[in-house]
Amino acid sequence: MRSTTLLALLALVLLYLVAGALVFQALEQPHEQQAQRELGEARDKFLRSHPCVSDQDLGLFIQEVADALGAGANPEVNSSIASNHSAWNLGSAFFFSGTIITTIGYGNAALRTDAGRLFCVFYALVGIPLFGILLAGVGDRLGSSLRRGIGHIEAIFLKWHVPPGLVRILSAVLFLLLGCLLFVLTPMFVFCYMEDWSQLEAIYFIIVTLTTVGFGDYVAGASPNQKSTVYQPLVWFWILLGLAYFASVLTTIGNWLRVVSRRTRAEMGGLTAQAASWTGTVTARVTQRAGPAALPSEKEEKERPPLLPPPPGPAEPRAPESPEKGPPASPPTASALDYPSENLAFIDESSDTQSERSCALPRAPRGRRRNPGPPKKPARPRGPGRPRDQDAAV
């Protein structure tokens, strides 16, 4: 990801966080202030009704009650029968272990012993990756089952001659509706019946749980009135299937975004190739038109350092020079499109830059070396009456 894109995304997330903070503050702060005033009024009323209790003793008692509630104690249950309503029975402990490896962490029950906290560290380090593997497998199998069922519905739509694009949209909508029916609406009615929650409270608990936020203000099975030991384990299995469904939805969205990104890159690659081809063609035409002007002039020929003279030897027959002097004829140059290496060089540079460079710099004609190596020794001419062995001896 580019740095500019990353900074833009960071700015968007920070703006989203600030907006959420302002909304939550406006909604929740008046309720908190009202609750604080009511607590102060109740405390003053208790002190007036019981003058033998000091303000300091009452504060210590309230602190002890708050710590006990944080440890999972229930103030409505007597200590003599607390073992039957323990928050750490087998079902509750199983549910608590499930909240650890699913990273939900409601917080309604917390560990108070050092041994329990130390065990929780190693338990989470091993259990979270293990649950991630299980979640991936269950999500894959669940998503395949749902898509297979929706595939039959797609086949029915195709038999009715529905356009394929509309069928894809309908299948995606059905996938979402079926998942919401199985993992959101049906559990909502179950929690409303079992926990005596309102529909809003049940939906709130479901979304907070399946998104692994887990505030802990609403927890299924945490009520003392709930005496079934298998209720919370069943809730954990619902959490497993719900998280798998959400994972399959996110995987489907990720695959769709990957396909869209791949198609976008392919289209951009095609446009880039067309632009490069057009640039190479225009540059080749400009180069062909500027070819005669790019030949070295007489002044440049005079300023060029002379080549080393050939070694002394018998005079070689030279072709008669023409009386008319002029620039040496250059061999016919081929088109720039015949040389792939030059076409590749034109991809990264604009046609204007290439045309200016071709007009400004002298260009040697093809077939002539700009920096030739040392001259070869000319062959000695053989006379008409000279045998081959004499040439060999010489």
From TrEMBL:
According to its UniProt record, where is this protein mainly located? membrane
What Pfam families does UniProt report for this protein, alphabetically?
A: Ion_trans_2 (PF07885)
Keyword annotations from UniProtKB, A to Z: Ion channel, Ion transport, Membrane, Potassium, Signal, Transmembrane, Transmembrane helix, Transport
Organism superkingdom: Eukaryota
Gene3D superfamilies xref list: 1.10.287.70
TM region(s), chain numbering? 87-106, 118-138, 169-191, 203-223, 235-257
- Name where it's found: Membrane
How is this protein annotated for GO cellular component? axon; plasma membrane
Q: Where is the composition biased (Pro residues)?
A: 306-317
UniProt GO molecular function: metal ion binding; outward rectifier potassium channel activity; potassium ion leak channel activity
- Extract the signal peptide range: 1-20
Q: What is the name listed in the Swiss-Prot or TrEMBL entry for this protein? A: Potassium channel subfamily K member 4
